[in-house]
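notes to self, project folder thing:

trying the whole complex as one job this time. last attempt i did each chain seperately and stitching them together was a nightmare. two parts in total, labels are on each line so i dont mix them up again. if this works i'll redo the older ones the same way
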Amino acid sequence: MSRQANRGTESKKMSSELFTLTYGALVTQLCKDYENDEDVNKQLDRILFSNFLPRGYNIGVRLIEDFLARSNVGRCHDFRETADVIAKVAFKMYLGITPSITNWSPAGDEFSLILENNPLVDFVELPDNHSSLIYSNLLCGVLRGALEMVQMAVEAKFVQDTLKGDGVTEIRMRFIRRIEDNLPAGEE
Amino acid sequence: MAHAVLFEFLHAEMVAELGAGDTDPGPGGQKRSLSILEGIGFRVGRALGERLPRETLAFREELDALKFLCKDLWVAVFQKQMDGLCTNHQGTYVLQDNSFPLLIPMALGLQYLEEAPKFLAFTCGLLRGTLRTLGFESLVTSSMATLPACKFQVVIPKS
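result (full assembly):
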């Protein structure tokens, strides 16, 4: 009986870290594979920097459906509600952490998510010559892609990172505009 | 389970990004892509293995380790158990999954069969990495006949 219970806990523990482990392994492996390849060093930066944003975006676009199905969260009426849902529901659900929300702009269109650590780099082995901020593009892409599917154009960027020696990891979220449903060109 | 979904989406993007082989479109590029994906899976498998309590790590029998892969590892990563495990009792094991979650999106058309190895490379590495942490060196390959079913062949050489 207790063996079964132990098994369940082990499985759960393994699965809760699966995403961050995989992300960390992905970055580490790419760095290793390309470290001696002069020509392909640019490939690495391209993949990690430019491409992770659209890759993250793709993930976000799919993730929002899963999130809405799981969480039963209704439509957010303003950006403050959105912030709460992102921090207290979404981050908790998918990454097991709850960032705090701070630094609201007076207009209420910008806020910061504060994480004690950058969850994506727990398992990354970083080479010396690569900027640490680029690893965060995946998460920024996810946030952008997911929110776009609920009619919000936002910008997400890491402005502080514990990986760089900052005290906290801070993601700045900025509301750009509401996305209206567009009719296909040629239709009135 | 939420974490699993996020992992599956990341896996799909990894395969799309790394499996593109646009640095070298020939067979060399494809091989490199598979090798990178396998390497990533290997790291994850090892890391997952290292998170286990000590008692679990002390498998003396090969078969116990393989059963662990088929039950605990598969449930943790894919929310299901392996559907079949066969062995010749001489170090070769065939693990059968009749409905492998990472292949399900592809199961719709036969024309994708040649793409399937890219979707299995990570998992081959995952198995090899977990086995390494459990104390076994191995060679893991995969094959598929009818998507989304696939087999993983694990060979543990006699020392």
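what i see at first glance: The helical segments of chain A are 2-16, 18-34, 41-71, 79-95, 137-148.
need to look closer tmrw
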